[in-house]
């Protein structure tokens, strides 16, 4: 399928690769060039650099069974290191512009569910085991077959759901949409700004950035997304310096030039893993359920992201399949295990990669830029954190629109057994803040409706197995209570 990005068409490259770099990354074959890949890699990094701050906050807030907390400085090092290595590995082996970093959601499971019942090395060992199981599933071909078993209509809806999901992420991270406090006693969980009003300079910076990005995209300006991020960051720097805005108003990162642009990395958490120690703490059954939780989330989160990003980049063939999917999935499994080994929690594919794709990235060369910047962040962390969320998140909203526009017409809306699961998939991802939940509800409803209309034989047997896994996933709480392992 052709790409939906509005990046202007550049002069046609020669029919044959121009050099070794072109040949290795298939730049000419995919209609891209070095400059577009560099721009895409930069845009992706800026869109997801927040994880260098957020992951240490989430993991550092947890306490293990013995009252130990992880060191924040060591977590920053581990987060940036594993993200950089995983992203570069995906670029070299998978040759797709999909960056990886510590998975949000999975890190909360590790911090709040696993660690309190065992030591930190035990909890990270569970993550490593989940990654090893993922690699085995890829090597056996089972993970690829699961992906192929998902109907085309559902695959399109997964891409659309991811577009809506990253749009909501962008709006929330920018402060344009906020969570209503529980003490408000309202049935409305989200609202505009603060108390239904947009207040403060940071939100204004986001609004300006969003308007600028859309204008540049509509005008087909080369490098629209990256130019907008840079321009909005400069605006934020100026406003913060003049208005003297409190640091916390910007969120995780404050737009101000640091006193020092370098920091000293601390590799103390790397390799602090006990592979099977957690089972002795919680028992085999509970340990297996923990591994299953991490495994299923990583399995389908990454799969959904790969589908969505590949669709947006125009990398899928006429059959809806992504070339080299086996290699891509294997790297994802390695990243999960690598995240556990580095005590950074499971690393997985990031939907923010669509920011780079929207900028023109089509190959793994963009990943070398993104991954290289993560590795540079080991030393230049203060400089990497100058870009506030309000400058990077407009790209997510714009790309969310591009993804939806490219896929919405391809869903078979005249077939209710496809349309209803597609609808549930699309709305569940943003509403539950989870790609896995969206895929799960889509698969289960597809099986149910096909059975209700006498078309159960059209459902691949492997999709029944996937549906059963999702049934266990959604009913994990009652199952744990029934087995006495909650």
UniProtKB/TrEMBL annotation:
Q: Which InterPro entries match?
A: Azg-like (IPR045018), NCS2 (IPR006043)
Look up keyword Transmembrane helix and say if it applies: yes
Q: How does it sit in the membrane?
A: Multi-pass membrane protein
Q: Among its keywords, does the record have Zinc-finger?
A: no
Question: Which parts of this chain are annotated as the region Disordered?
Answer: 1-21
Q: What is its main location?
A: membrane
Cite the entry's keywords alphabetically: Membrane, Transmembrane, Transmembrane helix, Transport
State where the protein is found: Endomembrane system
Where is the signal peptide, in residue numbers?
none
**Stretches that traverse the bilayer:** 42-63, 75-103, 123-142, 154-178, 198-218, 225-243, 284-307, 328-346, 366-387, 394-411, 431-449, 461-479
Source domain of life: Bacteria
Query: Which Pfam families does the record associate with it?
Result: Xan_ur_permease (PF00860)
| Family, similarity comment | Belongs to the nucleobase:cation symporter-2 (NCS2) (TC 2.A.40) family. Azg-like subfamily.
What is the official name of this protein in its record? NCS2 family permease
The protein's organism comes out as Streptomyces zingiberis
């Amino acid at each position: 399928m052709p790409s939906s990005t509005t990046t202007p068409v550049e002069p046609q490259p020669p029919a044959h690769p121009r050099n070794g770099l072109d040949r290795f990354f298939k730049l000419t074959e995919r209609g891209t060039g070095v400059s577009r890949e560099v721009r895409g890699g930069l845009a992706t990094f800026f869109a997801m650099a927040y994880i260098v701050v957020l992951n240490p906050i989430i993991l550092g807030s947890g306490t293990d069974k013995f009252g130990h907390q992880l060191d924040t400085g060591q977590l920053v090092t581990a987060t940036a290191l594993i993200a950089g290595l995983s992203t570069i590995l995906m670029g070299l082996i998978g040759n797709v512009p999909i960056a990886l970093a510590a998975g949000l959601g999975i890190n909360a499971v590790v911090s709040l569910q696993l660690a309190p019942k065992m030591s930190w090395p035990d909890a990270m060992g569970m993550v490593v085991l989940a990654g090893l199981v993922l690699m085995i599933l890829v090597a056996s071909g089972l993970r690829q077959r699961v992906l192929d078993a998902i109907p085309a209509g559902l695959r399109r809806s997964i891409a659309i759901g991811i577009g809506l999901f990253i749009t909501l992420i962008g709006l929330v991270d920018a402060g344009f949409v906020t969570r209503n406090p529980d003490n408000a006693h309202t049935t409305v969980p989200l609202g505009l700004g603060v108390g239904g009003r947009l207040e403060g300079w940071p939100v204004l910076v986001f609004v300006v950035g969003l308007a600028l990005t859309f204008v540049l995209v509509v005008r087909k300006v080369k490098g629209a997304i990256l130019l907008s991020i840079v321009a909005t960051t400069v605006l934020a720097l100026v406003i913060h310096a003049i208005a003297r805005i409190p640091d916390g108003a910007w969120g995780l990162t404050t737009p101000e030039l640091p006193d020092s642009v370098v920091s000293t990395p601390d590799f103390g958490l790397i390799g602090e893993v006990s592979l099977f120690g957690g089972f002795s703490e919680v028992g085999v059954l509970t340990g297996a359920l923990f591994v299953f939780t991490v495994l299923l989330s990583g399995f389908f989160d990454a799969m959904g992201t790969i589908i969505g990003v590949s669709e947006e980049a125009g990398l899928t063939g006429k059959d809806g399949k992504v070339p080299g999917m086996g290699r891509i999935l294997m790297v994802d499994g390695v990243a999960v295990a690598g995240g556990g080994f580095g005590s950074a929690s499971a690393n997985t594919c990031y939907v923010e990669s669509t920011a780079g794709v929207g900028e023109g990235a089509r190959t793994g060369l963009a990943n070398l830029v993104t991954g290289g910047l993560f590795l540079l962040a080991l030393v230049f962390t203060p400089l990497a954190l100058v870009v506030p969320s309000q400058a990077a998140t407009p790209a997510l909203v714009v790309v969310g629109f591009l993804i939806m526009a490219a896929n919405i017409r391809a869903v078979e809306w005249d077939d209710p057994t496809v349309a209803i699961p597609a609808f549930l998939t699309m709305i569940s991802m943003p509403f539950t803040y989870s790609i896995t939940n969206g895929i799960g509800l889509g698969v289960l409803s597809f099986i149910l409706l096909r059975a209700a209309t006498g078309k159960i034989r059209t459902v691949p047997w492997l999709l029944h197995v996937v549906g059963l896994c999702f049934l266990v996933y959604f009913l994990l709480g009652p199952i744990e209570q029934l087995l006495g392992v909650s």
